[in-house]
Amino acid sequence: MIRRLLRRLLLDPAHAGPAPGTPDASAHPGPAPEQANVGALTRLVTESGHPNINDLWRVTKDLEALRLNVKALGYELARTLEAGLQSIPVEHAKRINLRSKPTAQADMEAVWCRSWCAALRERPRYHRRLWECAFVLQALFEGEALLPEAEVLALGAVDGSVISYLSRNEVRSTVLSSTAPPFRDDLTDAFTFQKNVAFRPIEDGLKGLKGLDACWSIGEAGHLGSIRKGMDFILETMDVLKPGGLAVHVFDFNYADDGQTIDNWPMVLFQRRHIEALAEEMRARGHEVRALDFHVGHQPLDRFIDIPPFDNDRTEAFNGLWRDGWQSAHLKMSVDGFATTSFGLICRRGAD
After folding, report:
1. Tens of pLDDT along 293-347?
2. SS3 302
3. How many CB atoms lie within 10 A of CB 309?
4. Are 161 and 187 in contact (CB under 8 A)?
5. Rounded CA gap, 232 and 224, in Å?
6. What structural domains does the chain harbor?
7. Which of 76, 81, 125, 156 is most buried by its number of CB atoms within 10 A?
8. Phi then psi dihedrals of residue 62, to 5 deg
9. How does DSSP classify residue 180?
10. How many CB atoms sit inside 10 A of residue 66's CB?
């Protein structure tokens, strides 16, 4: 209905007036109804402070409240379920034969994920960013890349929790990024961090890097300008590994639309077909790809697709209403209208 109204308003501005049965717009001073500026048409009030009565206003004026209602209910559900995460036992890391897969509620409720939350000293909660960290660490553990003296490459905007944990465990990390990596002083100390973490400007690229035990990235493949560039980036990282070395990459996954997606843009969304094509290219080069699992889960929080406003969208007045960390839970979210979650891909370099 909204798309139909937009088309009507943009193609035929003369029909931008109030729908039958609404008050006469002429009785409410403000912008002329013939103006086809969607921004003006969707404002809640006119310059005079009167209700901005027009066809589009009638169907959009309550959308913000509806969004907030959906978010509040989703977060409340997550907080209610979160209490059960505390009862999950914390164990030492164990091999579970982790697959290449998307985020799912069942993962957050599994012992492996709960244990990595404890290792990172994070409150267990339903948030895909926490899942990303746990996924990377579980994959590195199973690839024997968490051993002291292991040589690991971290790419892009590096998560401070993961890099600090690696440092504490005497893993030697090189960080290829545009900014120096942060560290968490509750996971490591400055001396240990400086000893085990080297910074390499992103302008230097991968040149000269060889024979590493592992590499990992969170989000980098989806922020290179196109899906093809993201795929090429993942393929190129295999060259820095030793035979048998492990690559773990996490990126945004458009899981609900096999047709359209965002491409050729600062942030892109991979689809199943792109991941399958990438896996085929990997295998054609002699590399191993951990089994692909595209099941996004069927539990309540797998079906909750979070929507704006997000942290960077909220007004100061809105922030003043809730100061209890209200936005603390989502496994799926809408990115420019596409249902999206995180996907973790695990690859192992083949023999030369």
Report:
1. 999 999 999 999 998 877 666 677 766 666 555 556 799 999 999 999 999 999 9
2. helix
3. 14
4. yes
5. 10
6. 2-61 (no CATH), 66-348 (3.40.50.150)
7. 156
8. -105, 5
9. P
10. 10
